[in-house]
Design brief:
Elements lengths: L1 H8 L6 H16 L6 E6 L5 H9 L4 E7 L2 H10 L4 E4 L14 E5 L8 H9 L5 E10 L5 E5 L7 E7 H10 L2 E10 L2 E8 L3
Parallel strand pairs: 1-2, 1-4, 2-3, 4-5, 5-7
Antiparallel strand pairs: 5-9, 6-7, 8-9
Helix pairs in contact: 2-3
Length: 198
């Protein structure tokens, strides 16, 4: 994963998830009030590649913290990006004060969890002003569903397809509204939610 991220970061404008991510952060910083710098928590940060995109495109605009449930991913992120903050933390067993962050980012995280509603309850129940749900499979017609797909050896891997109605209902439960939606690749979307009154 680290090698792939490194290769893609050499020309991120040609990588759909990266260009959509930059577009979403540009929309956020251009159109909505944020402190300067804003505190951003990246749930499921993996090897920390979004920290590099933030540093390149939005220098000094965010205080970045990455977290992942995998200790080996966090170790790789710390090795690759010394001086940036990376913590072991699981969205389904969160130990962080999410209300202390201005922006919560979850990139391709809910997409791989079978307990997607529980994860969205954590993210959208965070109290942060903005939640960026990046790289999520969307179902335009029908109900949300979870499938078991190929993945890492010895580990069950899921693909979650969210219905627009389910996503909207959970957002409304926590007083969030959809502020922006960006196409990543066909039915894969990025959603920027804004807390009502933020």
């Amino acid at each position: 994963m680290a090698a792939l991220a490194e290769e893609q970061l050499a020309s991120p404008e040609g990588v759909a998830p990266y260009s959509a991510f930059v577009e979403a952060i540009e929309a956020l910083t251009r159109s909505y009030p944020l402190p300067r710098p804003a505190r951003l928590l990246d749930f499921g940060c993996g090897v920390g590649h979004y920290s590099e995109l933030i540093e390149r495109h939005f220098p000094d605009r965010f205080v970045y913290t990455g977290c992942d449930y995998s200790e080996s991913m966090i170790a790789a992120a710390r090795d690759r990006w010394p001086g940036r903050e990376f913590l072991v933390n699981d969205v389904l067993a969160n130990i962080l004060d999410l209300g202390s962050y201005d922006v919560i980012l979850a990139g391709a995280l809910v997409d791989v969890l079978d307990e997607w509603e529980r994860a969205l309850d954590v993210l959208l129940g965070s109290g942060a002003h903005y939640v960026l749900l990046h790289r999520q499979q969307l179902v335009e017609n029908g109900s949300s569903r979870v499938e078991v797909v190929g993945g890492y050896e010895g580990q069950t891997t899921y693909r979650t397809y969210l219905s627009r109605d389910a996503l909207g209902a959970i957002a409304a439960r926590y007083d969030y509204e959809l502020a922006d939606e960006i196409e990543v690749d066909g039915p894969i979307r990025t959603f920027l939610f804004r807390r009502v009154g933020a």
